[in-house]
Design brief:
heterotrimer, A mainly alpha (308), B alpha/beta (320), C alpha/beta (339), A: 308 residues, mainly alpha, 13 helices, 79% helix, flat, B: 320 residues, alpha/beta, eight-stranded mixed sheet, 33% helix
Chain lengths: 308, 320, 339
């Protein structure tokens, strides 16, 4: 088990380094940030050169890269090109807001998707199954921005129950969370149903019934723990989807999280911020994958016991 | 009699696991084997004994990690190239599962004709295909069907028809009847016997079912953990097994006579783990006759008085 | 569906003692097509301590019959007629909770693929101790001690250390022993074994059959063995039921049946087993069984039968008593000259 964990951690670190390098290279070769920040025609060349030197853009690429890695090691990710503030500081003040949004989304999507999927599988072929699946297809096929706008129109414009944008109160949270959670909850429901159905068809479930267990015990002990194994992987993947989704949702609902920060920084070619954000997203994904692998191993004795 | 196929010191070791804890499976380990022209050689053994791997090696579907195979005196071509393609035509493999070997999107007749055309074997492929179907007991109408429209037994027959299309020099039958129901299995066994009589087919019949293997084979090779432990004429091996493992296999054979139902003492223990090769004779942990020497040295196949080969320290020494 | 007369289930020249398990007129059909039964009018009885074999080719309904006894048919299927009585109690009428008590405590079951029949995320110990708690009320160390004793009884070596292992860490034969230990946990009167050795190697198969015979002898447990393999039936059963296309075609004491089958289907199946000496051509049955659930008029075997007459193609023959056996055939084979 220790070996397994160590291997996974080493691989995760390797992925993190690759991401750092790739983002660095990609962002440097896609255009000069100074030119997009300063009006080139009206700015004197010495000003441009000053900023180039200030941000280290005059150095050769490999020196910039080394400097960047050094900064990473010291916990600094450069300064915002726009207002000169520390990138880490800017992002750090946005993170809690996004975490609140994603935490609630995760909770709501699981609270909706898991029971719905389980119920649909256990009552397959009945109206319960059909209703859940129809809802899931609808939820899944509606693009996030469209659902968001529909919700705004319904709850903010027509009914005037909820604020259309901003943050601060519970009411502000409802629509962004719903927009994200309905979509992902639909996918969770479908995966859950498929996973539970698959396990229900396995011989050991029939055997458990033949051994005299009541149906509830069979579901609790033989079906759900086994169905959870593939689900953990899927839910892990959703974290990536949620990050992508949060960018759109934060924009629509003017939620001051890191998704919105990313859009403004990209528009303004604020390299340091974009780079720091991409790194943050990537590390989040890598850590999630690591956690998924560990959870998977914890749930599945076949992996756990693969000591060699 | 000439050896159509000769294997010498044939080994296939699989390396599994990551670099840190590599494990080696000796799927086939130092096997010497002759297959005579026109004979059917049966290979029996329990799951994991390496019988299918040996079958694949014999026709070049898998490369040995040691030893060599010659066919009519020439080394078995491997890899790519015209020699390999020609050998692929001569050497054929009939799998247990005909569904995986036949194309689900083409009719049976088309698949047979395609083989005939690729190898330029018939002036009129369509007529020849119908003759081949007839030879395996299928009508022309079956040629127009797709795999899923045939029953299990018919699929296996169709596969045999396509195999025979190339007039193969050697056919490996790998558990060809294990998945079939008893009555259909008997039809297939009869078919294979009939084709042997009519076409003089040289073949290898791999099965875990001793009764079936005895019936269809001229000689039987018994495998245990990658090695041949006994090989000889089918009836002699079946009725007077010499190696303790062969004796155990036959002891476990279920008699159809309920009055004879209490067989000899059962073999203890589980079939061996292919990862764990015990030192010495690999059968010694389960062998009722195991002596000290069996734990130390691996017995080689030695020729006994009746021409049979067996690998056991407990048997009287070589005849010569 | 034809409603031909079925001979009384408990009739028999040996005057079978009050039966432990009696199946009568059992008919199983898809929910969606209740007029196309997969199993029709199956009837047999099982005495205390007796071993009954059920033999037939795939799709003949032998496994469905086995599942229907404990009410475990797949959702798409339905028992449309018939009764299953355990010491006179109609178990097909029991409520789910009462039926759950019958399963495991009165009737144990084991299946074809032992590894797949055990929950992969539970240890052998958790599997056995939970069954002992449910069926015998044993807790903690007492349950663990009894689990070890059960594993010993089914021939699992080093039982105490095996409790911590998962099914995939044991061989197929060991897992089947564990399954049997689980079935014994409730000390049932009957063990239903559905193809118990089909997934196992030859030497392991012999060990498991020996174990089943020992358990019968030492515990007086009745046994129903379902198999496609005549060898398994000959080794494990006292009496055999032969099924074809969902119906019982012959029932006889095992020695009688193997010495002289009377239904042409039974005879054809036996002629399909390669002999142990000589290479006389096999005389297999021609053709193949009807598709499961196909509409069948008359005797389902008639299209493959050389003895079939016009009457055979029109009405289904009834299962009638012939000496010590029951045969569903208008033109049975002569059988033994000396009875």
């Amino acid at each position: 088990m220790t070996r397994f964990v160590l291997t996974k951690i080493v691989r995760a670190l390797l992925s993190a380094w690759l991401v750092v390098t790739i983002t660095f290279v990609v962002l440097r070769v896609t255009g000069d940030p100074v030119q997009s920040l300063l009006p080139v025609e009206t700015t004197p060349p010495e000003i441009i050169d000053y900023y180039r030197r200030l941000w280290g853009l005059d150095q050769p690429l490999w020196q910039q890269y080394l400097g960047y890695l050094q900064g990473l090691a010291n916990g600094t990710l450069g300064r915002s090109f726009a207002d000169g503030r520390d990138a880490v500081g800017i992002i750090a003040e946005r993170i809690p807001k996004t975490l609140v949004l994603m935490g609630w989304t995760l909770a709501v999507m699981l609270a909706l998707g898991l029971p719905a999927g389980i119920a649909a599988a256990l009552r397959r072929g009945t109206w319960v199954d059909r209703a859940v699946m129809a809802t899931a297809v609808a939820g899944h096929s509606l693009p996030g921005y469209l659902l968001g706008i529909l919700l705004i129109w319904l709850f903010a414009v027509e009914l005037r129950w909820l604020p259309s944008s901003g943050h601060g109160t519970w009411a502000h949270l409802v629509m962004p969370v719903l927009t994200l959670a309905l979509y992902h909850g639909a996918v969770v429901a479908r995966f859950t149903r498929a996973a539970v159905l698959e396990i229900l068809g396995q011989p050991h479930v029939l055997a458990a019934r033949a051994q005299g267990w009541r149906e509830a015990a069979v579901i609790r002990r033989d079906v759900l723990p086994n169905a959870a194994i593939p689900l953990v992987t899927v839910v892990g993947f959703f974290v990536g989807g949620l990050i992508g989704g949060s960018i759109i949702v934060e924009w629509i609902f003017a939620w001051p999280g890191i998704g919105r920060l990313l859009i403004t920084s990209v528009a303004g070619r604020d390299l340091a911020i974009v780079q720091a954000l991409v790194l943050l997203f990537a590390v989040t994904m890598i850590v999630t994958n690591l956690l998924v692998d560990l959870a998977y191993a914890l749930l599945n004795p076949k992996i756990r016991l693969l000591r060699d | 009699m000439t050896a159509a196929v000769r294997a010498e010191g044939l080994s296939r070791h699989f390396r599994l696991g990551s670099w840190a804890r590599r494990r080696v499976v000796h799927a086939v380990d130092d096997v010497d084997l002759d297959i005579h022209s026109g004979e059917m050689l049966g290979i029996v053994g329990e799951s994991g004994c390496g019988k299918s791997t040996l079958g694949r090696l014999l026709i070049g579907l898998d490369r040995p990690t040691g030893g060599r195979i010659t066919i009519d005196g020439a080394p078995l071509p491997t890899g790519v190239g015209p020699a390999f393609r020609r050998s692929r035509k001569q050497l054929q493999y009939v799998f247990q599962d005909p569904l995986s070997a036949l194309n689900p999107r083409l009719t049976i007749g088309f698949q047979i004709e395609e083989v005939l055309r690729v190898h330029r074997l018939a002036r009129q492929p369509a007529t020849r295909a119908i003759a081949l179907l007839d030879a395996v007991g299928l009508g022309p109408e079956h040629g127009e069907r797709y795999v899923h429209q045939l029953s299990g037994g018919q699929r296996q027959r169709a596969l045999v028809a396509r195999t025979l299309a190339v007039e193969p020099g050697l056919v490996i039958f790998d558990e060809p009847v294990s998945a079939l129901d008893l009555s259909v299995q008997a039809q297939m066994i009869d078919l294979i016997a009939m084709l042997r009589r009519r076409l003089g087919l040289t073949g290898v019949f791999i099965s875990h079912d001793l009764r079936v293997v005895r019936y269809v084979s001229d000689r039987i090779a018994v495998m245990y953990l990658g090695r041949i432990v006994e090989i000889g004429a089918a009836d002699e091996v079946f009725h007077q097994p010499l190696h303790p493992y062969t004796q155990a296999l036959l002891g476990a054979l279920l008699s159809l006579d309920p009055e004879r139902r209490r067989g000899p003492r059962r073999l203890l223990g589980d079939p061996p783990d292919p990862f764990e090769h015990p030192p010495g004779c690999s059968f010694h942990p389960r062998c009722p006759q195991a002596a000290e020497v069996c734990r130390r040295t691996t017995p080689g196949l030695s020729r006994l008085a009746d021409g049979r080969l067996a690998a056991c320290h407990a048997l009287p020494g070589p005849a010569a | 569906m034809s409603l031909t007369h079925v001979a009384p289930a408990s009739a028999g020249s040996s005057g079978a003692a009050a039966s432990l398990l009696a199946v009568e007129g059992l008919t199983i059909a898809p929910r969606a097509a209740s007029d196309r039964p997969l199993v029709a009018d199956v009837a047999f009885t099982l005495g205390r301590g007796e071993a009954l074999g059920v033999v037939g080719e795939s799709g003949c309904g032998k496994s469905l019959t086995c599942l229907a006894i404990t009410g475990l048919l797949p959702r798409a299927l339905l028992r449309t007629a018939g009764r299953v009585a355990l010491e006179g109690t109609r178990i097909e009428r029991l409520a789910p909770d009462a039926l759950a008590v019958v399963r495991g405590r009165r009737i144990g079951m084991i299946f074809q693929d032992p590894v797949a029949s055990l929950n992969p995320v539970r240890t052998i110990g958790a599997f056995l101790t939970s069954l002992l708690r449910r069926h015998r009320g044993l807790q903690g160390e007492a349950a663990r001690r009894e689990a070890v004793r059960l594993l010993d009884a089914v021939g699992v070596a080093a039982a105490r250390t095996r409790l911590r292992l998962y099914p995939h860490e044991l061989s197929g034969g060991q897992n089947q022993r564990v399954m049997i230990a689980g079935a014994l946990a409730g000390e049932p009167d009957v063990l239903l074994a559905d193809e118990p050795t089909t997934a196992l190697d030859v030497t392991t198969q012999a060990q498991i059959l020996d174990l089943l015979a020992d358990l019968r002898a030492t515990r007086g447990m009745a046994l129903v063995v379902v198999s496609h393999d005549f060898g398994v039936i000959a080794a494990a059963a006292d009496r055999v039921v032969v099924m074809y296309a969902g119906r019982v075609v012959e029932e006889a004491p095992v020695a009688d049946l193997f010495r002289a089958p009377r239904h042409p289907y039974t005879a054809g199946l036996m002629a399909s087993v390669p002999p142990e000496t000589g290479r006389a051509p096999l005389r297999p049955l021609l053709g193949q069984p009807p598709h499961t659930g196909a509409a069948v008029v008359g005797c389902a075997f008639a299209p493959r039968c050389v003895r079939a007459s016009d009457a055979c193609r029109e009405t289904t023959p009834a299962l009638v008593q012939l000496g010590r056996r029951r045969v569903a055939c208008r033109h049975p084979l002569p059988g033994e000259r000396v009875s």
